[in-house]
Amino acid sequence: MFSPGTKRRNLSSRTDRTSAPATQSDSPITPISAIRNPHLDNLVPNRPGTGTPAPWAPRLSVLARISPVNRSDKEDETDPVKPVYVGEFPQVVRDEQASLIQQFVTSGGSMSGGMDAKTSLAWIICRDKLFLWTYLLPVATMKCVVRELPKHILDSKDIGRNNNDHWLLSVVSWDSQSRSLRKSIKHQNSVGIIICNKKTGAVAYWPDIFSDGETAPVTCLTSSHEPAPISSFFDGKITSHRNQSMNRPRTFNSLIASAVPDSQYVCVALACSSNGQLWQYHCSPMGIQCTKVSQDICGLHSQEDGSSQYLVNDGYPRSLTWSRSRLQSDKFNRKFLLLTDHEIQCFCLKLFPDVQVSKLWSYEIVGTDNDLCIKKDLAGQKRIWPLDLQEDEEGAVITILVATLCKDRISSSSYIQYSLLTLQYKFGADIDASGDKRILEKKAPIQVIIPKARVENDDFLFSMRLRVGGKPSGSALILSGDGTATVSHYYRSSTLLYQFDLPYDAGKVLDASVLPSTEHGEGAWVVLTEKAGIWAIPVKAIVLGGVEPPERSLSRRGSSNERSVQDDTRSLNYSGNIASTRSFDVQDVVDRKKANMAGIAHRTARDEESEALLRQLFHDFLSSGQVNNSLEKLKNSGAFDREDETNVFTRMSKSIVDTLAKHWTTTRGAEILSMTVVSTQLMDKQQKHEKFLQFLALSKCHEELCLRQRNSLQIILEHGEKLAAMIQLRELQNTICQNRSTGLGSLTSNSETPMSGALWDLIQFVGERARRNTVLLMDRDNTEVFYSKVSELEEVFHCLDKQLDYVVSADESYVVQNQRACELSKACVTIMHAAVHYKNEHQLWYPPSEGLTPWYCQLVVRNGLWRIASLMLQLLNEVSELDMSAKSDLHCYLELLTEVLLEAHAGAVTAKAERGEKTESLLHEFWSRRDSLLSSLYQRIKDSVEAENKDFRGDLVEQKIESLRKHSSRLLSVAKQHECYSILWEICCDLNDPELLRKLMHESMGPKGGFSYFVFQKLHENKQFSKLLRLGEEFHEELLIFLKEHPELLWLHELFLHQFFSASDTLHGLALSESDGPVMAPEVGTEVESDHSNLELRLADRKRLLYLSKIALMAAGKNAEYESKLMRIEADAKILKLQEAILDIYHAVETEQQLDSELLHPDRLIQLCLKAKNPTLSLMAFDIFAWTSTSFRENHRKLLEECWKNVADQDDWNLLYQVSVAEGWSDEETIKNLRETTLFKASSRCYGDGATEVFGEEGFDVVLPLRQENLEGGSILKDCMGSVEAILMQHKHFPEAGKLMVTAIMLGVEDYDDRVENDPILMD
């Protein structure tokens, strides 16, 4: 396919080459070349008689690549650009192939084959038999189904028994989606198979091919083909080929099938043929209904005379595929896409009740608009073939393989250009709208795969198939009818090609698929070969081994063959060890991609030299016991430059623990479970790892790592932890298997064999995940991979977190669920205990642990432990079907699991805190899981105690307490260790043991009071205040921490300690507190208990608190702050009295809600006074200002000015002025009448001679002087707003009565209103 463009040989030369006698093959199983199609073979120059085409230089047989034993422990020696052997054919397939080879000379033969990505099934049709198996399973456990094809189909003259390469097959899985993942490592339980012959359209249907017993399929013979005039667009001209159509019958190009929901073994299949027909098959166990869809789907046009003949493009439609884009909510409707010669068509298939096909939309892919599609009629362009169509798994991107026939304008020679067109759904487009041709848009410019390639005929082009969805992301794989498979990877405007290449005895490539990923995402490419089994293409191989497509001048005759040999040589040179053998051509490509290669080929030559040196030094140490100045040598080689997993010491340690043993074999399958060689190999690894640690210590590399690479040293030692854990896990599995074989043990189930059980299934899941993530391990058994990949032990917990529903299925009985959950719990505990035990024994080897998170404290481990613990909690709390014995076992296992889970959380919190990171979310997760687990366990203990003493005769209370003390001792220790104070408190209360409570309070000290704080809090909630204070006498510091948040009790404790100054401050602050919550009203000589704890703090209570504060201050004695504190207390007491008086007057005037229980701020009190427009309240506003501070008056000067304006409005000054003039008041009469005004009273209270004695030196003069002349010079604006006189000047009556108003305020200064001192409101 991807051969360079060249001049085609003439027919005679091809005939001569074909008729040449076949030479003896190097391979013992190489079939005779007569079986190959000479027409296709002769199109490829220098091609051998069998096998994949390029490169065509001689090489070893494919059998040499499949070692009879597995690879060595040096995984790095694996060729990074070679495909990886995944699995062998089932033996029955091999036997049939061998039988077929013996008949090649007389009868000839061929094979069809394919792969299904969703079900991981592979199939081969060889002669008259269909072979179907799950290719991900090892050969030993592989179940291959063999079904014979119906004879009446094979006897057709159009098919023939040996022409088995003309079959289409579609798989219909009946398994529910929720169980599909679990079946991924097991056999498909229920699968329907539909096969269709490409030539005749004959269909066979097996409703359940995995059912026991061989059942004959349901068959249907499609009506014979209807030859039609075919229009061929070639060289820009349309010519009729009626005779050609008679010689070229129609072929079926594509087959898809879908299960009908809510029905048993009923499905609908669709097939398209090359003469423009779409066939519909309704398949059920009762029969197959075949219908030709009467839809003008391929641009077919009826003749003008009304005849039934059509004009169609030869070979179309090409491809059918289900559309996954925005799946409809109606499960009975499915959309599918159909590829024609110039457009994509979308149809809706109604599955129930009547099968109907309706067209939704079409999109032109070959047209005149270059922005929307492939532009046709370009210069040098002769013809365009859309060859295949695929949609990605998410249904977002559609990829189309396109071939274009072009003519070179210089040399006039023709060539074919291969390209990929990627389309995506337009944002907001209605994919269900009928006839919308703008539903799609180009995702990217057309990607040219091969600019110039050899001209091929139509049959060769139409044999090409496209696959998408593999790694690297965005790559595509192209299959060709001549047996090639090529991966195209687009990177930075450059297309890289990787050709799947096996030696000639591998046969053709039958199909390719994507390796199912255990997670959401893409998998590696897998390839089904004709004779060499199934192979995978690693991502590294595609990236490293990919080369740019050849693009060369077509005028140089013979350049193609020369270049092909050169390309082949380059591939061979580079296929060696990439570290030591570097081909200059491929290295240029790698250099251009070095930024992207950092994640794959990030190791430099210096790193490899360091690792090689370390390996050699360690080897010398093993043989001689000498280190030979290793530290200096390794320093000079840069061995200490890398960190973490990339450090050469870490890589060396990983290679030791992850060694794949040569003598483990996959051919024995599950028997590996009972092999002692597994344990022996693990012990050998442990001994070698211990030797490696000794080497690090003797060479002083350990000291260097401890100083410079703490994390790397931590990882090395964690490898030892995991190895020790794996050894113990292996011993556990052996024990479980022995118990099952003998029927002993609580975890034994009669329905489970030694090769089953929860732990066995978990091992299979973990091994399967490792195999899929690393295709180099695909030829290994799941169990072998699990016990080999020691450094990936965290995957056990990952699978528990993600796949526990499949290991412990809800479909099983609760008894089985309980057994399997306990088995998994024991495995987790075994792993954690072994790791911790190893760490304790090797504590001196570890670096300082500050900030380092152990592997068993990582998120994936914690989540896995919590997942199984949650399941056990559910079984313990919600399931009543379990008997007491089963629940007792479940409780014991859950208790052990809880300990390791909480240890993991505690370690994670500690490490995160040491790194200075935020721990709030982690702590809340820890606390939530801790409380849930321990509370459930304690409740189970109490239930068991009740059940034990149900029939007890005697002192039942004492018996219960003793039994509870015995059963809760372990839980008490765990709760104490992890500060689960609620459980500690509950146990102490249930045991009624105050001594235990005091002991725990002494032992559980913490930064915020520890358990003591919690106890005080519970006593406070229970309103046991006296008990709280008496208990606090033993825990002074802890009580003080608690009481700082509870001042209603703090002052009592301070009085008890004779801290009178502190008690005074506490009482003072409590009296002025603004909280509206319940507080304790202190009563002298009264036991403070629950009856008084809910009283609201009313004004009387606040005054009482202030009196107590004053008494405490007096008891403390005089000091430097005594006078100021006493004045402040008295001032606050006066303000409280003012509030009482104001509210009494206010509510007598205004009917509003009582505010007796609310402490009002002084500014709010003043506003109430102003709002009332009452003379008495207006004067009280000044009293409030007087008893506050100077800072308050300064901050509320505007409010003070409003008070003066308000008090000026309390008297009718205009009337006073008129009366004084009319009656002719004397000075004595004027003074007498002004003394009765509110303005005089306010001035006297604020500025009178006695005001200083009452309010202090810093009175109102500091904030607002009385007269203007008291102000120092300033602007007019300042004069207008700087004094009481200035405020009065703004009064409306000031022009007439201004003299009276000023006289009134001046009289107040000279004659202080002594009623202020005698006012009962302000008196104590």
UniProtKB/TrEMBL annotation:
Start and end residues of each Nucleoporin Nup133/Nup155-like N-terminal domain: 77-535
GO biological process, alphabetically ordered: poly(A)+ mRNA export from nucleus; protein import into nucleus; transcription-dependent tethering of RNA polymerase II gene DNA at nuclear periphery
Region (Disordered): 1-56, 550-574
Keyword Nucleus: yes
Domain of life: Eukaryota
InterPro entries named in the record: Nucleoporin_Nup133/Nup155_N, Nup133-like, WD40/YVTN_repeat-like_dom_sf
Localization per Swiss-Prot or TrEMBL: Nucleus
SUPFAM superfamilies on file: Nucleoporin domain
Primary localisation category: nucleus
One matching Pfam family: Nucleoporin_N
The entry's keywords: Nucleus, Transport
Compositionally biased region (Polar residues): 18-30
Record field: transmembrane: none
One GO cellular component term noted in the UniProt record for this chain: nuclear pore outer ring
Keyword Transport: yes
Bias (Basic residues): 1-11
Gene Ontology molecular-function annotations: structural constituent of nuclear pore
PANTHER family (alphabetical): NUCLEAR PORE COMPLEX PROTEIN NUP133 (PTHR13405)
Family per record: Belongs to the nucleoporin Nup133 family.
Protein name, per record: Nuclear pore complex protein NUP133 isoform X3
Originating species: Cucumis melo
Source lineage: Eukaryota, Viridiplantae, Streptophyta, Embryophyta, Tracheophyta
